[in-house]
Each structure stands twice: as structure tokens, then as C-alpha cells.
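Collaborator request log, item 7. Partner lab (contact: R.S.) asked for a structural prediction of Protoheme IX farnesyltransferase to inform their binding assays.
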Amino acid sequence: MRDEQASLTNPEPYAFAAAGEGLASPRDYFELLKPRVMSLVIFTALVGLVRAPGDVHPIIAFTALLCIAVGAGAAGALNMWWDADIDAIMSRTRKRPVPSGRVTAHEALAFGLTLSAFSVVVLGLLVNALAGALLAFTIFFYVVIYTMWLKRSTPQNIVIGGAAGAFPPLVAWAAASGTVSLEPVLLFAIIFFWTPPHFWALALYRADDYARAGVPMLPVTAGPDETRLQILLYTLFLVPLAASPAVLGYVGYAYGAVAVLAGAWMIALAWRVYRRREGEAAVKAAKGLFGFSIVYLFALFATLLGEAVIGGLLR
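Returned to partner:
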């Protein structure tokens, strides 16, 4: 059914796929890993690893980060395998390795499953069982719960599915300490509530793409005005949540200052998205929020990392 939908809507990518089998290069397989997403995963996991209590042997730390990165890449490959039909329809994704025919669906599936098994088993055996179990659940959640189920069935897809992208610091914390506490749960919550305004800002100016592919993103099902309201509401909840580690004494003054200042700008941009609803001004506002939301999350986690490194050097 999925293949029929893609063929009827945009047959060219699958015609090219049949002709292009066997042309995969190492770069194509690397692209299957979603390297930009993987870089964010590695960074947030590194923060969880560094901020966890106790000292971690460098080899254990490297092994944990490698497994988390490979697990994220494996989930990305399985996502591209399953979503090849809608990726072929959307202008943003039609040049990915599977819909363009450079990698076959079977190759992407085998690649993703192999990397999934490798990352979970190695993390579980060489680091600890809790971290391995959390990584396995993360991959399962992203591939089965989000990609196979939520993405095509509900406009809340990115809200619930955002949990998959929020797990890396939790997995890394477990890898370093063998436990989970409130601090890594807060890191999880920050990424979780950051995800909807981040992706809905993108969806506002990519709504036609999602509608053409039949993906029920919020701007498609509820309209752009409701999406703007939800972006503002989530942002208003996110900003004090992001400042809560400072209030609870987990972090220093530098993080608190960054959380407040960057959060104020995040709210201002969300308000601009809410207010600007017509024409190029609306598109510009949505793009501005989408771009800054990446900077916002990076600034928060970079400050967390910097405080932990400086604190370690001063001990």
C-alpha cells in the first residue's frame, strides 16, 4: 500500500531506484546514518556522560559514545528504509539514498539491523546492562513507535516521538554511573519539550510537502494558526523547564544566565511566529525560530559541558 501511494503520487523516484540499484558508495551508507542528527545525539550524550557522578575510564567513555552514535545511526537507517515511499514524494528528502535508488530497501534494512544489534550488544556487555537496555528501547521507540506508528497516524507524532531524540543523555548517564537520577531526567525533558516547537516551526513552511506525502503534521491537520499557538505554549513551558537545573542547584550561574537570556529570545521568536501569519513575513518568522532553536539547545548543553569540564579541572 505504501509503495502504491508513492508510485501514484510521484512515480519517478521509484523508476530511478530500479535503475540505480548497486550504485551505493560509502558516502551513501554514511548518509543513511543521518549524520546531522547523529552529531546532536553525540553532543547531548557527551554532556550526560561528563555530568554523571564519578570518574569514567576513557575507554569506557569512548565505547559508550561510539555505541550511542552507532545506535542513533542504525535508527536513522531503519527510518529511511521504512519511510522510502514518503521520502520519494517530499522535496526535502527525495534525494536520500533509498528513494533515489543508490541503496536498495533491503540493503538499508540489513544495515540498520546489523548496526542496531552491534551497538546494543557491545554497550550492554562492555559498559553495563542498563545502558544497553536503554539504547535498545531508544532504537525501538524511534523505529517502531514513532516511524512505523505515530508518524503516519497522529498530528501528535513529533510530540510523543520526540522522546527518542531525548534519550541519549539518559543512556550516557546510565553508561557512566550505572544508574538514572533526576538530573538526566531533566536533560531528557528539556530535549523532549524542545522538539515540538523546533519541528513545528519547520513544518509551518514545509506543510505542503507533508500534505503531499500524507503525513499528518499539525499544520496539515489543525492548520497553521493552531500550530503557531502550540509552538508558543510549548516554548513558554520549555524555557522555565530549561532553567530548572539552575533553580535546583544542579548547575552553576553560567548555565542559569544562558538559560534565561537564550530562553527570553526563544520566547520572543515564538511570539513573532504567533503574530506573523501571512506571506513572506510568516515564513521568515518560522525559519528564524527553527534556526535559533538549534542554537538554543546547543547553547544550553554547551554551557552544561563547559561547567562540568571547568569544574573537573578545578578539583
